[in-house]
Amino acid sequence: MIMSDLTKLTIAAARDALRRGDVTSAELTQSCLAAIDGADALNAFVHKTPEVATAQAASADDRIKSGEAPDLCGIPLGIKDLFCTKGVPSQAASRILDGFKPEYESTVTTQLFEQGAVMLGKLNMDEFAMGSSNETSVYGDAVNPWRDGQTQLTPGGSSGGSASAVAADLCLGATGTDTGGSIRQPAAFTGITGIKPTYGRVSRWGIVAFASSLDQAGPMTKDVRDSAILLRAMAGFDPKDSTSADIPVPDFEAALTGDIKGKVIGIPKEYRMDGMPAEIEKLWSDGTAMLRDAGAEIRDISLPHTKYALPAYYVIAPAEASSNLARYDGVRFGHRAKLEQGDGITEMYEKTRAEGFGDEVKRRVMVGTYVLSAGFYDAYYNRARRVRALIKRDFDQVFAEGVDAILTPATPSSAFGLGTMAEADPISMYLNDVFTVTVNLAGLPGISVPAGLDAKGLPLGLQLIGRPWEEADLLNVAYSLERAAGFVAKPDRWW
Amino acid sequence: MSIDTETARRVAKLARIRVEDDALPGLAQEFNAILGFIEQLSEVDVDGIEPMTSVTPQRLFRRDDLVTDGDQQDKVLENAPDAREGFFAVPKVVE
Fold first, then answer.
1. Per-domain boundaries in chain B
2. How many angstroms separate the CA atoms of A23 and A37, rounded?
3. pLDDT band at A16 (very low <50, low <70, confident <90, very high)
4. Which of A61, A127, A63, A50 minimizes the C-alpha distance to A95?
5. Which of A242, A472, B3, B21 could form a disulfide with B31 if both were Cys (CB 3.0 to 4.6 A apart)?
6. ipTM of this model?
């Protein structure tokens, strides 16, 4: 095999090649490290860890020789900067965690490393995962390997570095996290696959918290099979996360039969937004036809509270963020502002947080503070939590009526130009998550599958939403859609 | 409800984020845009609906009340901006 082609392998293909002895993890890893060094223009990898990767690859090769290698043994991955990795910078793309090197390892990365996975480095993201374009990062913008002519595009956010790295073949797969769409929107913008599992499926322990009742980690990969493999490796009960579910993790890959005959696919009318671009509408109806042709029953459904999901999210997520981010106080870790003579502890907090947080993070922390403050708690926070209960009930009802999965667009548009939203008000950026945020509020699994190109030649994704804990079934529907859509386009290398 | 400069100042203070005086009007304007968007929630009939506390119907996992970890003072202090004699150090708190 040509070394530069090794990085283009899927996880499944690399696993099989490793087991056959056609390639070593050392070769795979060196190819990825070379690709990463040649892709600084994408600004996807923000902390490279070649020494860690080389050592992990060597022990993976020993393990593969012994014949006792799990699926991920020897597979080079990128890790989102939100995951705490022992002794390696983990700063959630924020200045306030500048210099922070955890003394511990997140549960997800612990599991991945126990299974022999190789960490190539840490990936760019929006600061504290707050953003939809990777433009709020202290490291600067991550860049989409897809371009519109000569125009540089966002890879989406918040897992923008993960999406860019996987789409540009810098790694075989990556971890992401998703609070309102942060795996699925960047996956759609870069022509890759990403799944947000059911809330509680993957441990949150050691992942820098944004909005704890919504945050879930998941895989970002080149295809559905790889998502199945990587999700299984990341998932499982963890006593260190009090919301982790003690439910067995199935072999998701074994569920990929492609047979969806008789499955009921819901098409929610409320997702047909006013002013939806014709290309998105066509993609959605094409996807519906593909599932029908594969033998699924298509059913029109209603999720009446859909339009209230974004406003509810923009109460609940900032409220939880304001509480979670209270820990960044300049005392225990990260940045502390230089103080003037006579400054006391309050000045230390205020100056440290003003210097350490970027504008979007400050805005959300303060909005969260406001909606939780005395006199507004009921009007905003409690009302939003009631609306959230109604949004979940909408889904519960359609699932109870026999719907197996729901098909929607993943995003309202293809990737937009970096900088084009700079002057827009924050709400315009928030609208990116209009199709994905309902899934986090209801705690459901959702997957984004690349399904076509728009007129500019940019990838578009479709989202499938599944029943709680039934990721295996969801992945199988996604696999069927993937086979029918036959998306194989790749960005031309310019970086 | 509209947020004025004084409210913006108070919220910044509660959040322990220093905001300079000349930035307060802009901040108040941003708050108003976001709260205007959130205002839609008042259209929803939520009578008789309990606020959601957990998205999955499970009790929080509980453990026995035992010491399972400890003796990691060095690790705990390793990332502190200022640690002295085994403690986190901060500016004077009490006059």
1. 5-42
2. 21
3. very high
4. A127
5. B3
6. 0.95
